[in-house]
Amino acid sequence: MSSVAFETQRAALADVVAIPVTPFAEDGSVDRDAHRALLRRLLDGGIATLTPNGNTGEFYTLTPEERRLVTELTIDEAGDRSTILVGVGHDVPTAVASAHHARELGAQMVMVHQPVHPYVSQRGWVDYHRAIAEAVPEVGVVPYIRNAQLSGYRLAELADACPNVIGVKYAVPDAARFAAFARDAGLERFVWVAGLAEPYAPSYFSAGATGFTSGLVNVAPSVSLNMIEALRSGDYPAAMKVWEQIRRFEELRAANGSANNVTVVKEALASLGLCRRDVRPPSRVLSEDERAEVAAIAAGWSI
């Protein structure tokens, strides 16, 4: 399939790429009704790209059956209102099965979570992603890169073999490294998504990104949209006004190695009465003091 055939998918990546939370019911199961309501809120808020089974969705705490359920709920609720980028990962057969499932339901893209393995070689990284991408040649594939050692030339090598590798979620916290990686891989060849969300979006956009992922968008879609509109128009002072508005919220999420990354988002949603605050281990709910601070921040946004 030619790159022309992936134009819709490429356009969807050059946007706010929402990573929805996975709300849990009191008994610990996935809360289907709350999940649908949160998805509708994103769609009604103008969000056009959704990533079920992302890290903000607690991908690594979900069972295979729950990951399939989350994919099904998201695709069913979104209909033709959104482009769906389904998170897949774990061992190759599991990732391939998830990619096949996503394709069968009509998802246009899959995001491949970084390989969770203590020993990742650069050539092995290519092999891992190639096995998944070749299994679904008609689906756009987006590697999620958190490995600072990975060379941009390896990504180019992967795309030479798999033309359906069309975009990259780059989540190494180093704007200079991102700029070099993107140019080594091919700046115009891929859609570059700033994978560390709004705090890094201005610096990554200045280096060539055209989209960014967001967990904050679950709470305040308009805030995320304000930032991307500013960045698209090259208005960095306006983008940094949004950055200042969300700074404390994102600092709370990033503290202690991002220990409360999802917890803070769910706490904000809980403070607004939109879902329970529950998260699964190894995440944990916030202390009372932290809850009050998050609630105050969320209340201060024009939601």
TrEMBL record:
Keywords per UniProt: Lyase
SUPFAM superfamilies found in the cross-reference section: Aldolase
Superkingdom: Bacteria
SMART domains given in the database record: DHDPS (SM01130)
Record flagged with keyword Repressor: no
Keyword Hydrolase appears in the UniProt entry: no
PANTHER family linked to this entry: 5-DEHYDRO-4-DEOXYGLUCARATE DEHYDRATASE 2-RELATED (PTHR12128:SF19), DIHYDRODIPICOLINATE SYNTHASE (PTHR12128)
Entry's family note: Belongs to the DapA family.
Protein name, as recorded: Dihydrodipicolinate synthase family protein
Organism for this UniProt entry: Streptomyces vulcanius
